[in-house]
Amino acid sequence: MARFRDFGVTPGLLPAGNRNAITDVDGVSVGHRTIRQGDINTGVTAIIPQPGNLFREKLTAAVEIVNGFGKSTGLVQVAELGSLETPILLTNTFAVGTCANALVRRAIAETPQIGRCTSTVNAVVCECNDGALSDIQAMAVREADAVAALDAACVEVEEGSVGAGTGMTCFGFKGGIGTASRQIGIADGIRHLGVLVLANFGRAGDLVLPDGRRPDPRAAAGRSVSGDTEKGSVIVVLATDVPVDQRQLRRICRRAGAGLARLGAFWGNGSGDIVLGFTTANRIAHESKHDLMVMERLNDARIDDLFRAAAESCEEAVLNALCAAGPVEGCGGLSRPLLSDWLREA
Fold first, then answer.
1. Residue 332 counted as domain residue
2. Cβ-based burial of 128 (10 A; exposed 0-12, middle 13-18, buried ≥19)
3. Which of 52, 95, 246, 301 has its CA 20 to 30 A from that of 150?
4. Where is 146: in which H helix or E strand?
5. Secondary-structure breakdown of the chain: helix, strand, coil percentages, each rounded to the nearest 5
6. DSSP state of 299
7. 25: domain range?
8. Residue-wise burial string across 105-126, b where 16 or more C-beta atoms lie within 10 A, e elsewhere
């Protein structure tokens, strides 16, 4: 599996974490369930923010809607309450409800009081449309696939054409799952910010690499891209172990959009571009007996490093998704070229 740095270019200024992945944030794990059967190329990717019962011990969270052409679930409550109480599942557009059901059943199994003598649970599922390379009408994702992705979660993150990224396209190349991270020095210690992306966005010909090169996936075929529309999507999941409040976290999430813009994205009318962020540092008890809560919060004067980390991690995560992606053949033999091939030949 290739990553962008394997081709001799190091994006950004901040140092990457040891894995250069969202799992550099301690406690975060990622799993995939990949479904490839005939014309079906789809799947589920699970991000488990922390071990244990998330419903009982929620995490501070925020969401930034860059462009809202999307069918995700759970984001309204995250935006309103500033908390995350389930793992995050990524999948295709028509599998959102199925994956939400799997999260609800899992939460009820852990906390049988849900929906009866305590509140219901807010299942968070985000999506991109993989219909170009997969028969999305087959409704191939089952609850068992979501459970399998959750059960497969670990700290080593597989990238490219796996899980939810199996059938995705990015800037005309094969897209998919990518991740990256940055280290930040705060309070005489090293903290981390990591990003995982589901990359299914960008107009062919618009991609700009950090060294200024502009790979065009259709240039060799002599086809113009000037009339193409941007109608894909990208889901960015951002994690940090820096103690921040919801307001600060939303500001950090907003800067992930700078990473997308550096690559040439302009968030077209038909693009669903969503950033969902959480911090592992500030827990929120589901049932607290205290009227007041004490939480740590970063000094705003130190937040610029997190802004830079969000932009750099997002940019590199997308590049890693593009470089790690392997060949996928969809309906009628349709496929997408690989950026890794272009970089090897350049």
1. no
2. buried
3. 246
4. helix 143-151
5. 30, 30, 45
6. -
7. 13-216+229-286+294-326
8. ebbbeebeebeeeeeebbbbbb
Residues identified as active-site:
233, 271, 273
| Sequence-ordered strand ranges (E) for the chain | 29-37, 40-48, 57-68, 83-84, 88-92, 124-128, 169-170, 173-174, 176-186, 189-200, 233-240, 272-285
The rounded distance, in Å, linking the Cα atoms of 164 and 161 is: 8
> Residue 252 and residue 257: Cα distance in Å, rounded?
10
Residue 85 lies in a domain: yes
What's the CA gap between 78 and 93, in Å, rounded?
20
Pull the structure tokens for residue 81.
């309450």
| CA–CA dist 195, 60 (Å, integer) | 16
Whether 23 maps to a domain, the answer reads yes
Residue at 236 is within a domain: yes
318 with 311: CB under 8 angstroms? no
**Contact by Cβ (8 Å): 279, 285:** no
Q: What are 216-221's contacts with CB under 8 Å, separation 24+?
A: 216/172, 217/171, 217/172, 217/173, 217/336, 217/337, 217/339, 217/342, 218/172
56-105 tens-digit pLDDT: 999 999 999 999 999 999 999 999 999 999 999 999 999 999 999 999 99
Q: Which two tokens stand for residue 145?
A: 């696939």
The CATH number linked to 261 is 3.60.70.12
pLDDT digits (tens, 9 = 90+) for 286-331: 988 888 888 899 999 999 999 999 999 999 999 999 999 999 999 8
Q: Give the chain's domain count.
A: 1
Supply φ then ψ for residue 205, to 5 degrees: 100, -10
